[in-house]
Amino acid sequence: MSAPNSNFVRACKSQPVNRTPVWFMRQAGRYMPEYRAVRKQHSLLEICKKPALAAEVTITAAEILGIDAAIIFADLLLPLEVMGLPFHFSAGEGPVIEKPVRTKEDIANLRSDRAADLGYVSEAVSLVAKHFANRVPVIGFCGAPFTLASYMIEGGGSRNYVHAKTMMYNSPVEWDALMRKLVVVTAEYAADQVRAGADVIQIFDSWVGCLSVDDYRRFVLPHVTGMVKQLQRTGAPVIYFGTDSATLLPAMKETGADVIGLDWRIPLDEGWARLNYECAVQGNLDPVLLFADWKELKSRAEAVLQQAAGRPGHIFNLGHGILPETPVENVKSLARFVQDYAGVASSAGSPVSASRNPKAGSRTP
Ligand code: CP3
């Protein structure tokens, strides 16, 4: 752990901060010319698998944005490969899993003993943590079992999750076996990232919002709860993020995650209320607002901050990742605006610090 007393890590633990920390999902991505330049020379998977390159991409984005946390550059689907499921990215189609998991035998054949082969991600984490020292905290991440299973079973992205849900309904025993294997691999993988220097782990359950509350409780909640417990034993706070999750929020809170990520479909204060204010929240500006005029973008960002109302435990973020054509200037301006926002400290009764420190993340309360 490199920056345990940073505003970001403190906010993850619902501790008071002197200003709201901010970072963005997909902050290193195609919207940024520096990333596109690296991508011209290397495939996405090449970048992920070369620690020096992955670290460079992570660091460059965080420095350009002057942001309060650096998420390690990797991909959600990397664990599929070590479980025995090769995949590739096809232009326009997104990820393609070559032989989707459909039967009991397919599940039995999945390996859960090779998480260590993802060590290149931990190596990248340790390079980034070394670079930032205690200046900017590092976020490690992994996929949640439902979202990873949906890719494994559907063979790629999906609209209705027909194959995944059919397996859940018709073969609950096999479904649970698959979820258990995924938790074994991802929990070990994420714990390795913490040992390498990640301050916080984010679990992406990007597509869990396609489930009813009852199905979530029966088929997902017990597995994610076990995973969160295991990760918290490393000492790192855990952020649990999903989209379309408004109805699932009370159940998601039962996982015991330190922070719940909110998407933009629910107002931040309403989402936090559904969590009984018993954990921290991260979010939740619509990423498409980054395409709007600055005046509109600013007023919507301000609305999110006002809804957080200076309560301890708010991390500013988007409701989902930055989109490819997003204007970089708006992303930079938004980060600066959140960092300069004085409402938090004043309403919390602690000293107001409205000036922006060029060394992002260096101020501690
Ligand atoms: O946030 C960051 O800056 C860290 C990097 C990161 C990537 N993927 C790199 C990447 C993170 C956190 C992810 C997570 C990820 N990957 C998720 C969960 C997050 C979410 O959006 O909910 C998912 C579902 C994936 C799987 C995946 N990888 C998809 C669906 C795609 C898009 C395919 C396409 O062609 O648009 C990817 C590719 C990917 N992973 C890119 C990046 C920056 C796109 C850019 C590229 O091809 O270089």
The largest beta-sheet arranges its strands as 1-4-5-6-7-8-9
Q: Give start-end ranges of low-pLDDT stretches.
A: 346-365
Biggest sheet, open or closed, and with what strands and sense? 7 strands, parallel
Structural class: alpha/beta
CATH architecture: Alpha-Beta Barrel
- Global mean pLDDT: 94
Q: Report Rg.
A: 19 Å
Kindly estimate the percentage of residues that lie in beta strands according to DSSP. 5-15%
Enter the CATH topology name: TIM Barrel
Q: Which small molecules are bound?
A: coproporphyrinogen III
Give the overall shape, derived from the CA principal axes: globular
Highest-level CATH class: Alpha Beta
Give me the count of strands.
9
Order of helices and strands: HHHHEHEEHHEHHHEHHEHEHEHEHH
Distinct helical segment count: 17
The residue fraction in helices comes out at 40-55%
The N- and C-terminal alpha carbons lie at a distance of 18 Å
State the domain count.
Answer: 1
Characteristic terms for this protein:
TIM Barrel, disordered C terminus, alpha/beta, single chain, seven-stranded parallel β-sheet, 11% strand, globular, two-stranded antiparallel sheet, 365 residues, binds coproporphyrinogen III
Structure description:
By secondary structure, the chain is α/β, with parallel strands linked by helices. The chain has a single domain, classed as Alpha-Beta Barrel (TIM Barrel). The chain contains 17 helices and nine strands. It has helices spanning 7-12, 33-41, 44-49, 51-65, 78-82, 104-109, 119-132, 145-154, 162-170, 172-195, 213-219, 221-232, 249-253, 268-274, 294-308, 328-340, 343-348; strands spanning 70-71, 87-90, 94-97, 138-143, 200-205, 238-242, 259-261, 280-285, 314-318. The strands form two sheets. Strands 1-4-5-6-7-8-9 form a seven-stranded parallel beta sheet. Strands 2-3 form a two-stranded antiparallel sheet. Helix 14 (268-274) links the parallel strand 7 and strand 8 (280-285). It is globular, with a radius of gyration of 19 Å. The model is unreliable at 346-365 (pLDDT under 50). Coproporphyrinogen III (CP3) binds at residues 25-30, 39, 44, 71, 73, 75-77, 89, 94-95, 141, 157, 204, 206, 321.
